[in-house]
Design a protein that fits this description.
Oligomer: single chain
Radius of gyration: 18 Å
Structural class: alpha/beta
Strand order of the largest sheet: 2-1-3-4
Shape: globular
Number of helices: 9
Number of strands: 8
Helix content: 25-40%
Order of helices and strands: EEHHEHEHEHEHHEHEH
Length: 237
């Protein structure tokens, strides 16, 4: 069997476009390489600050993201994701800019999750900032009509501290806020599964699953799902 070259580095299936920030990223966060049991490649997008991406995404970051995505593709990545779920706004644009799969947001999973739920159940969504999650974010990924309920961590002190000029936070405080949000989300008994939008929050997915007893989907579950599709397990028989 011949082995062909063409790249400088190999074995990097998943590329991750990272915001231009210095927030703390603990294991479980999309931006901590220890989150994965396979290699990923990161590319920081210059100028793509949190303030420019959360809410109504500043169009000035569009071209830098496209440039970075194309660089990841040229370096051999087979699929690309981003480090902010609010970039769902640009899913169609980014998909058209590269020739490999790109999944901008964990929100893309909402449609799939709803399709596997029993009749009458809704998808619960936990987002970083409910006030910043617009209808436009939902429309681009086709989930605006999916029965759902959304809660946010708006006003969470630990989350705010993480994004301050001197970024620092107490993971245990944020864990408590996530548990509180999850209990609020499921208090009516009509939620069948939960999707976490924010890429900083998967470190607490296990806590959400524990207190709700429900399946929890986040950007890390999606990355693993895509990676398994790119590199299916070989079975011996």
């Amino acid at each position: 069997m011949m082995v062909h070259g063409g790249y400088s580095v190999y074995g990097l299936k998943i590329g991750i476009l990272v915001l231009d920030s210095e927030i703390p990223r603990i294991p479980g966060d999309i931006g901590n390489a220890a989150t994965y049991d396979f290699p990923v490649v990161y590319k920081v997008v210059p100028g793509a600050t949190i303030s420019k991406v959360v809410g109504d995404t500043d169009p000035s970051v569009l071209n830098p993201f496209i440039k970075a995505a194309r660089e990841l593709e040229a370096e051999g990545c087979k699929a690309i994701t981003t480090s902010c779920g609010f970039l769902a706004s640009f899913q169609d644009v980014f998909s058209s800019a590269v020739n490999i799969p790109i999944f901008t947001s964990s929100l893309i999973q909402v449609k799939y999750v709803y399709s596997i739920l029993p009749p009458g159940k809704k998808v619960g969504i936990i987002t970083a900032e409910k006030d910043s999650l617009r209808l436009s974010h939902l429309e681009v990924v086709g989930i605006q009509n999916i029965p759902s309920k959304i809660v946010g961590l708006d006003g969470c002190a630990a989350f705010t501290a993480m994004r301050s000029p001197d970024p620092t936070f107490d993971p245990e405080v944020l864990r408590a806020d996530m548990v509180k949000a999850a209990k609020e989300l499921t208090s009516d008994g009509d939620i069948g599964a939960i999707v976490i939008e924010c890429t900083n929050l998967p470190p607490y997915s296990a806590d959400v699953a524990r207190v709700t007893g429900l399946p929890v989907f986040d950007i890390v579950t999606m990355i693993h799902y895509i990676h398994m599709a790119l590199e299916p397990k070989r079975y011996n028989y």
